[in-house]
Amino acid sequence: MHLVYPAVLAVLLFCTGVYGVLARRNAILVLMSVELMLNAVNLNLVAFDVWLSRTAEEKLHSGQALTLFTIAIAAAEIGIGLAIVLAVYRARGTSDIDKLRDTAEGHETDGPDGTDGPNGNLGPDGNGGGNDNDRGNDNGPQPPAAKKAEATA
């Protein structure tokens, strides 16, 4: 078999992964797209290892060994990534990347009219400076998790 076939397949897989990372907004789909890109690299490593071992009489198979390391690192990465996504989903209620861009602690988000912020202007809920449910203030209704955290504190 020619080297062109796995190389073209790897390019198609990698391009599909890049499209998924750039176009998708769900964090789990972005992680799956990153896995597609890693698998494309693994396919290239194995294909070039087989091709080079035929031409250079090399029996070391370093490309296949490197692929095993890449698979192990990818498994650890997807495990940690899914744990982070689940923790963020439990805390924020969404895994949409656009809605999670301001994850810095203590950073307040801008409202739809642009008047919400740390300077104390009234936000879209009328309470001033963001969503009071996230800070645990007594100005508005709180989700059950925040009430439970206050009761145990």
Description:
- With 153 residues, the protein is mostly helical.
- The protein is built from five helices and no strands.
- It has helices spanning 4-23, 27-56, 62-92, 132-135, 144-152.
- The protein is elongated.
Proportion of beta-strand residues: under 5%
Averaged pLDDT: 79
The first-to-last residue Cα distance is 66 Å
SSE order: HHHHH
**In this structure, how is the largest beta sheet organized?**
none
Radius of gyration (CA) equals 24 Å
- Uncertain spans, ≥5 residues at pLDDT below 50? none
Total DSSP helices: 5
Total beta strand runs: 0
| SS-derived structural category | mainly alpha
Helix content: 55-70%
Give the overall shape.
elongated
Brief description of this entry?
It contains five helices and no strands.
Reconstruct the topology from this structure.
Layout lengths: L3 H20 L3 H30 L5 H31 L39 H4 L8 H9 L1
Task: Please describe the structure with a list of short key phrases separated by commas or semicolons.
153 residues, mainly alpha
